[in-house]
Each structure stands twice: as C-alpha cells, then as structure tokens.
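Section 5.1 Outputs to date
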Amino acid sequence: MLDRDNMGRFNAAGDTQIVQEFPLPVGPMFSSPVYWNNTVYFTGNSKPIKGYYGLSGGLLTSVPIIQSLQNQPGGHAPSISANGNTNGILWVIGGPQLSAFNAITLTKLYGTNQLATRDASPPMAHFSTQTIANGRVYLGTQASLRVYGLLPKLLASGGNGQTAAVFTALPIPLQVSAATAYSGGAISGATVTFSDGGQNGSFSASSVMTDGQGLASTTYTLSKTAKTVTVTASSPGLAKVTFTETGTPGSPRWVLVQSGNQQNAPVTTMLLLPLVVKVSDSYGNGISGITVNLSAGTFGGTLSASSAVTNSLGRASVNYTTSTKAGKATILGTVAGMTSRAQFTETVTAGPAAGIVAISGNGQTAAANTPLASPLVARVNDQYGNPVPGASVSFSDGAAGGAFATNPLTTDSTGTASATYTTPPSPGQVTVNATVAGVATAVNFIVSVQ
C-alpha cells in the first residue's frame, strides 16, 4: 500500500516508508487487484482468492475477511460486476476456466472449462482481462472474441403445481413460453421436449414446437402411483424449466391385510406384531383418513381399539391380545360401505401345563402278565382347560411289577398320552398314576389283576 501523493522513494535502510505491506499472504500476482464495496480482492497464483476490508485510517485489514475455499490458478486480472453496492460478482480467469464468485462470500457461482488452453486453438490472449457489460462477459483470445451470457429460456406459463387423481389427465395443459434472456422476446419454432423422468405418466405430445408467440403446450396424464412428479421441459440452447404435479389416490376400493397375519401366541398374550390394515384405491395407493372397524368375532380376545383411522400411507393398526381359548382366531377389518375386508388368522396356543385328567382306560380287569385291552389315556390341560401338546407324562404302578411299552410319553396335538400297560405277575389291585412335570396333582387308574 503506497501513498499516491508521496510514493516513498528509495530507502537504503529498508522499506519503513511504505504505508502498508503483507509478507507473502496473497501469493504471486501478475495483475492488479480489484476494488468493490470497500473490499480489495487479490487472486494470487495457487492461492485462495482473498478479500481485505479497507480502507480504515488509510490501511487495509491485516488479515482477509473472506476467502475462497480452494486455491485458484492466477495469471489474469479479476473484474467486478455489480448493481451499485449489491449483487456483486467477482470474475476471474484461471488456467482454462472462467469462474464467477459471490463477491460477499467468495462462494463459487459458475465455472466453465470451455476456454482454450495454451495448447489449444485459439489460445487466450496473454494476460487478457474479462470485461462485463449488459449482462455479458467478453473474453479476448489471440484469434477471436468470445462472449458469454444468459441462455434464452423456457418459462412455465401455465399448468404448474396441479393436483389430480391418479391415472387421470391434469385439468390444465402444461404450457411453456420460450423467450430471449435479455429482451424477453418470443422464440418461435423451438422444439420443446417434455419428460417426467421415467415416472410412467404420459403426454398428449412429448415434443411440441413453439408457435408465433413462443408458446408450446401438452396435456399430462398422471401414472397409477400416487406421488409428486417433476416434469421437465427442455429445448436445445434454452434453459430448461420444471413443473411439479401431484397425483392423489382414487376412491377407496380394497381393504387389505398389510402385515401381522398368521402369528402364533399363547392364550392371554399380546401378539408380537400389530395387525395392520391397508385401505387402497384400485391401483394399490393407500388412502388416508379412512376409519377401519376391527372385530375378533366369537372367538374372543381383546383388541387395543375397535376402530382405527388410516395414516398417510393408508394404514391403520391395532394390537391383539389372545383369549383364554386355544385355536384359530379370526379378526376382521372392515370399512363402512365397502364389501372388501381384511381377514387375519392367528393361532392361539395353550398355556403351560396346569392339570392332568383321566380320559379312558380306568377300571380294567386282566389276567396276570397280560396287556390291558385298552390303553390308559390321560390328557394334560392348561389353566383354562385347553389341551397342552408336547407335554411329558410319566406313568408308574408303584413298583407293582407291571410294564409300560413306552414311558414317559409326550402328549399329542389333542394333549393326550396313551400308555400300553402289561399287568404284573401277581393278582390283586394295582394303582397306576400319571404325572406331568410342573403339575402338583396326578391322575390315578385302577387295574384289577386276576
């Protein structure tokens, strides 16, 4: 920093006459810095772009107040375009790229590598400086003048932001207008292509040419899936434009089982997973706000709620606690006015063994050392009287000398165990008892041996 009225002259003792200097912070520069809005910008080679605030008391800040995130190749003078003290843009050429930065934050706004390098044709003019005027950036090469500016653009002039039921045409056509970026003049004869990016909607025409007023339109039919889609209108050499359209579910058609079906749980136990019902339209889209009524029927059991309202996915859920009865429980989900219904089938298993009873075989008479004509049959029940399969039942004749074909036995699906018993060698009355682990009581069979 020099005093322009007294530049200091030569000082053999040092440079103490200089107003201000920065030892190596900005990097080598082959051009002048640029000044805007009381900030001085330096674009040193292989250094971040740095902005110093000033002038305060004739000096700049000793450290930069802003700088770019990455190092920039230097070599060309920076330029500023702005609307007075607002909308400042810092432009700089670095190597083969023209870049634009927000002058307040030095965030990169734009970059292009289309500029010719030293080995390409035509090469950039040595130390050329970009010039900005009337919304365009002018660059001089050794053989041409290059001009960068805003592209002509497409504008959404009708049909944006609509909502309609799935698989129906939007009520208002999607219309674009093609216009020049600077004057806004209409561009006729431009081919505009409409696309929903593979979202399975359809267009009355996907490629339309703009008319004399620069307008092109098409009718869009939503897909069968309820969702928000982005439709893009594009044309070569023009900035594209997008439409946002939303497909909503149709009328309720199906009441379906979503999840929680075919579970298993013991009596008086809540199922691990909730019972989830989905209400959908004809295409499977969930419908929110529908009241689903749920019932466990005559089998019993307890539902956490007798009705539930579908959420944004069309789903309503309740929890189910099994009854005291083992077997198949059927829970129905219904919606008023709809014939479709959701049916859950859950398996209720018996609880732990709590008792044992004699079913048949008691009071038989047989000769010594002879198998009984009928087996001794015992049934194991839980606390609610449900038969318990898979329980281990042990039989004993109190060391009377008889024999069992198999002992202990495992109860079958009906909770019963059938023991084949051969009488002892001595006559008399024998008591055979049957016990099950964990149950204090036993059941007795009386056998008479002749």
